[in-house]
Amino acid sequence: MLLLKTLFARRYLVALYGIDAIDIRGLLHARALRGADLLTPIAHNTASNLLAQIPDVRDRLFLIPNSVDGARFGIREKPRYLVERHGLQGCRVIMTAARLNGAEEKGYDRVIDALPLVLAEIPHAKYVLVGGGEDARVQRALERHGLHDRVRADGARCRRRSSSTTTASATSTRCLPSSKASRSCSSRRQPRGRPVVASHGYGCREALLDGDLGITVDPDNREEIASAIVRLLKDPPPQLADPESLRRRTLEHYDISVFKRRVAQAVRLAAGVGVAPAGP
């Protein structure tokens, strides 16, 4: 893109996810970012990481958070077949949706480590992992605590769109306490009306609207993870107790219609049409 701009005066914009702005290496990479007519980070945290390394792009930042499709995801009753498949009758369900990958830190093994503390307070809780792939840390955590009967995986089936949607509808709370920045931080929102447990860092607090959509925790503290899960399952804060309110608040900020409007505005700005943004 930088070459096209240099040779043919083409304008361009660059979308930045969290991981893209953590460590900007290479002269060409930095020059490409400096040459963009507009940079669209997904969160203020991403923008801050970028500005710490390339401060001169401050006047070309325009925030575009990731979105969810409110028409596709909604609040539904627990599907009977799904409850029977995983033995979830009468259970409070904790869910993590993430592809299992030993090279990433999504935090599902930390949830398993915290699960004995959760079960001490809520004996009928179960943890469902939705996502394909393999990660030896999961098996080690299960063996460490002997929790094979309390953790269910919906791996191969969740690759179908319908299964991932219905699995989430059987969930009481969602948990993904990453210990490193990843693209998943921006997606910890629940248009299905379920509260979320996520990491303190990497823009997750911002994504959860400072507590309006969930609770953030220290991902390295199993007691804190367990405490947050127990609180959401037993006595959640008022703003996290009402599914309809949670869904409405989520869609106000993250519905795909909001995303489309901001993308259209960003394209106009990159094209030189409209008022330039003043910071992120």
Task: Name its key features.
10 strands, 280 residues, elongated, 12 helices, alpha/beta, two-stranded parallel ribbon, 6-stranded parallel beta sheet
Residue share in β-strands: 5-15%
Gross morphology is elongated
Helix content: 40-55%
Give the low-confidence spans: 156-167
Radius of gyration: 20 Å
3D architecture notes:
By secondary structure, the chain is α/β, with parallel strands linked by helices. Helix content is 41%, strand content 14%. The strands form three sheets. A six-stranded parallel beta sheet has the order 7-5-3-8-9-10, with helices on both faces. The longest helix has 15 residues, at 256-270. It starts with a helix and ends in a 10-residue tail after the last helix.
Summarize the structure.
The chain is an alpha/beta fold. It is built from twelve helices and ten strands.
Secondary structure layout:
Blueprint: H1 2-8, E1 13-16, H2 27-35, E2 38-41, H3 44-53, H4 80-86, E3 92-97, E4 100-101, H5 108-121, E5 125-130, E6 133-134, H6 136-145, E7 151-153, H7 161-169, E8 173-176, E9 196-199, H8 204-207, E10 214-217, H9 222-234, H10 238-241, H11 243-254, H12 256-270
Parallel strand pairs: 1-2, 3-5, 3-8, 4-6, 5-7, 8-9, 9-10
Helix pairs in contact: 5-6, 5-9, 11-12
